[in-house]
Design goal:
This protein is α+β, with helices and mostly antiparallel strands. It is built from 11 helices and 18 strands. The strands form 5 sheets. Strands 1, 2, 3, 4, 13, 14, 15, 16 and 17 form a 9-stranded mixed sheet that branches. Strand 6 and strand 7 form a beta hairpin. Helix 2 packs antiparallel against helix 11 and helix 3 runs parallel beside helix 7. The two termini are 27 Å apart. The N terminus is likely disordered.
């Protein structure tokens, strides 16, 4: 019995040590149950996708049990000059910003500064007594509305069930109504106030009754504004002091400095004939240019504004996998992480998965559709960046491209299959 107890203690200590330390390079993938030989399939397929012209390039990172087993870039950052893509290049991560903003809100929750079921109007008064869109006239963009049956809450923002739509990339109704009120998707804003914009958003109709269904929208931009209002500092400052510096995330920014400008990856789009073209203007159905991370601004989009590297974001995800702890820094409690990665939308339809507070979540019913285990949480960004965290496999994996639209959207799913086939323990 003593021997069994000793073994259990040692195993527990080993698991705790893995999750308490920072990620590092595995001596060999085999030390954490990954086959080196099978990982080469990722290299082969990445090269194939580049050679076929399906993408200019991509970078990927796979972490198992806290150890890096794959961290490589394939293809080109510039197809004209044949400049190679590098694994430490900086990518526009767009909606991957949302998870970081969601963590910031949960930190304030654990600081006792807010409750998840607080009405948003407690902090931004214009969200009191909102209306819901009833009828919309597409010809002149006029509309009628009815009273909302309740006030939207912070929890509903985190789960995208508030009824807020997206500007520029949302429904035709949301696009038109928000454009009239000068509400944007959050990128390329350099002369506006986030609080002013979100206060205007509160005067506009919701797209549906609060809590009625999942609608991907400006929820997390509004959450970013709440972080600023409640903390008394900018979202940029909060992220830096409360998240990036404690975790050692050295390459994640709203405002990318000129010193690091040469590491910002070129953005490509797919033409009608299938060829790839460097994209510089007209992004996201608007005037936003691809250089937006380099233009100094104080409008910090909590839903889309960050640029980052694979390694930085991998560190952030490892912290969540570690139940809120990384390299001795406890950013969240394990129960906060549990809440974030639990189904928060009940029976509301959301494809095969469910949605937590900032992440999609694989359920027991959807786990049979891919190799991802139940409890895997994930999301991505509009410029073709994706990430997944599988707690049962103790694995974090990401693939970053920089493409706006592609007929080869299945590349990320193929990458996922390639990652899982490499597990050998």
């Amino acid at each position: 019995m003593k021997k069994i107890l000793l073994i259990l203690v040692l195993v527990s200590f080993e698991i705790t040590s893995i999750f308490a330390q920072s990620i590092s390079l595995a001596p060999t993938p085999e030390t954490v149950g990954i086959s080196s030989k099978k990982l080469t399939k990722i290299d082969r397929e990445m090269k194939y996708w580049v050679d076929k012209g399906w993408m200019n390039g991509a970078a990927a990172l796979v972490i198992r049990k806290g150890k890096i087993v794959y961290h490589k870039a394939h293809g080109y950052n510039d197809l004209d000059t044949k400049a190679l893509l590098k694994k430490d290049d900086i990518f526009r991560i767009a909606s991957q910003t949302k998870a970081i903003t969601s963590v910031a809100i949960m930190m304030l929750y654990e600081d006792g500064k807010l409750l998840l079921d607080d009405p948003v109007s407690k902090y931004i008064p214009t969200f009191k007594k909102q209306n819901v869109l009833d009828k919309f006239n597409e010809a002149d963009t006029t509309f009628t509305s009815i009273p909302a049956n309740k006030e939207i809450t912070i929890r509903e923002l985190l789960s995208h069930t508030s009824g807020l739509g997206y500007a520029s990339i949302g429904s035709k109704e949301a696009n038109a109504i928000y454009a009239k009120a000068k509400i944007s998707a959050g990128l390329g804003e350099s002369n506006h106030s986030l609080l002013d914009a979100m206060s205007r958003l509160g005067t506009l109709p919701l797209m549906h009754q609060p809590g009625a269904k999942f609608t991907y929208g400006l929820n997390t931009d509004l959450l970013g504004c709440l972080v600023e209002v409640i903390s008394g500092e900018s979202l940029e400052s909060f992220f830096k002091t409360r998240i990036f510096e404690p975790l050692g995330m050295k390459d994640t920014y709203f405002n990318l400095s000129q010193e690091k400008a040469n590491r910002l990856v070129n953005l490509y789009t797919e033409e009608k004939d299938g060829s790839l073209k460097k994209q510089t203007t007209g992004m996201l159905n608007g005037p936003v240019g691809s250089e937006y991370p380099l233009i100094p601004h104080t409008y910090f989009s909590g839903g889309a504004g960050l640029s980052s590297t694979l390694l930085d974001y991998g560190i952030f995800l490892q912290m969540i996998l570690n139940n809120g702890k990384y390299n001795g820094q406890q950013l969240l409690s394990r129960n906060a992480v549990r809440i974030m990665t639990s189904n928060q939308i009940g029976d509301i339809p959301f494809g095969g998965d469910k949605f937590g507070l900032g992440f999609s979540v694989v359920t027991d019913k959807s786990s049979g559709k891919t190799m991802a285990q139940e409890g895997t949480f994930a999301w991505g960004g509009a410029f073709s960046t994706s990430y997944w965290v599988d707690p049962k496999e103790k694995m974090v994996y990401l693939i970053y491209r920089q493409m706006l639209g592609s007929t080869h959207g299945d590349i990320s799913e193929k990458f996922r299959a390639l990652v899982y086939q490499s597990i050998a323990d």
